[in-house]
Design brief:
Elements (H helix, E strand, L loop, with lengths): L6 E7 L3 E10 L4 E12 L15 H10 L6 H24 L4 E7 L3 E2 L6 E3 L9 H11 L3 E2 L6 E2 L1 H11 L11 E6 L3 E7 L2 E2 L15 E2 L7 H4 L1 H12 L3 H7 L3 H9 L3 H27 L6 E2 L20 E5 H8 L1 H20 L6 H6 L3 H4 E3 L5 H12 L4
Parallel strand pairs: 1-4, 4-7, 4-8, 9-14, 14-15
Antiparallel strand pairs: 1-2, 2-3, 5-6, 9-10, 10-11, 12-13
Length: 396
């Protein structure tokens, strides 16, 4: 079957919903873009959804994984079936809108994957679904949807952001050799392109850590300052309000930034911390890539092996630092430009100028931060990357 005989779908699965998009490919330019067809399904709208679902403690999940014996309880099995059903319905909705019954799809989901990469065996905020791909494929067969080939793997949100930025017509990895991507949504996504190649963080964990693994001198995970959910939690803590109340009032980081422009003391305090920590995080990325790990942060997991200072990319200067997902949208907003972007660039510039780890050529390179730090143009980078990954692996 030719690559033009089916609809290509990319799916971004999260903690509360799945978002599926038609992905278009241009044979002439070899670039990808989002199509018009899309479908979003919240897990809560699926019959059988358990609103009070409690995940199995991660320590227990890890122990069971290491023992090679996952013991899924009845609630996990039920909630897992709901997740799969939501994904199936999103695919069905797109197929119904298209003129094609043949489907090739890619899927990104949080959590640690099974050895065959087709299931989820450890996840912080949801059910384990070790047979995810098989369950989904069987469910789609009932709808008479023709799968062009089985799902090759369930990928990670972070890797798919990088793939989207590298192959999309609007991607910001595609015309540079060396770049770092930091995406902030419910969680945080790190992606790297070095020496012209995408470099998954799972392949460089000996010398560079993911954002969520790092903690600052106050013992706080750096995810708190890059993820939109974390920023909201930070404001709730500082303003002594309940998260549920902020959600009810519609007070999210964009609204908190607007409060800061009106000199709300709690909002100003929140963004002062966000700016400080984001600047230190990006500075650590710059330094670690150029000069190796310099112990600027601790680790959330105290048992994580220490990072090596030697790696094959030392001496590399980043041409681009991309802020993506809802973090990017916040930085681009009118309030965000004043409250977040400008002070962030200023703080980062000071860290670089005063750096004991960067030499003069490196410091000089990063003086024009306004041109280096950019915002992603991709609305749905993980879904886009998932579809592209499926296409690139077609019949391979």
């Amino acid at each position: 079957m030719q690559k033009s005989d089916f609809i290509l779908i990319g799916i971004d699965g999260g903690a509360t919903k799945v978002s599926a998009w038609q992905i278009l490919h241009s044979p002439e330019t070899q670039e990808f873009s989002l199509g018009k067809l899309n479908a979003t399904k919240s897990y809560s709208e699926i019959p059988g959804f358990l609103p009070d679902f409690k995940p199995v403690p991660v320590t227990q999940q890890l122990a069971e994984r290491d023992a090679g014996q996952l013991n899924l309880n009845a609630q996990e099995q039920q909630q897992g079936a709901v997740y799969v059903e939501a994904c199936a319905r999103a695919i069905e909705e797109i197929v119904e809108q298209s003129e094609n019954n043949g489907v090739l799809f890619g899927l990104g989901m949080p959590g640690l994957k099974t050895s065959d990469l087709r299931g989820i065996e450890v996840v912080a905020n949801g059910p384990r679904i070790p047979e995810y791909a098989s369950m989904l494929e069987k469910r789609l067969q009932l709808s008479k949807i023709e799968l062009i080939q089985p799902l090759a793997r369930i990928g990670s949100d972070a890797d798919y952001c990088g793939i989207g930025e590298n192959y999309s017509s609007e991607g910001q990895f595609k015309d540079v050799q060396n770049a770092y991507y930091l995406g902030g949504g419910t969680g945080v996504a790190d992606a790297l392109k070095l020496k012209g190649q995408l470099v998954p963080f799972d392949q460089i964990k000996s010398w560079m850590a993911k954002t969520w693994e790092l903690k600052n001198s106050d013992g706080q995970s750096m995810e708190l300052f890059a993820a939109i959910g974390g920023m909201q939690r930070l404001f709730a803590e500082i303003s002594e309000q309940e998260l549920s109340e902020l959600n009810r009032q519609g007070v999210y980081p964009l609204q908190i930034a607007e409060l800061a422009t009106k000199n709300d003391s709690n909002a100003l305090k929140t963004f002062k911390l966000i700016v400080k920590n984001l600047a230190e995080l990006i500075y650590e990325r710059i330094v670690t890539i150029y000069a190796g790990w310099q112990n600027m942060f601790g680790f959330v997991n105290p048992n994580r092996p220490t990072l090596q200072s030697m790696h094959p990319y030392k001496g590399t200067l980043l041409e681009r630092i991309i802020l993506g997902q809802r973090l990017g949208e916040l930085v681009q907003s009118p309030a965000g430009k004043t409250i977040l972007k400008e002070p962030l660039l200023q703080s980062l510039k000071q860290l670089i100028i005063n750096s004991p780890f960067l030499d003069s050529p490196a410091i000089e390179h990063y003086q024009n931060l306004e041109a280096i730090v950019t915002v992603s143009k991709l609305r749905e980078a993980p879904a886009l990357g998932a579809g592209i990954d499926a296409y690139l692996n077609f019949n391979q």
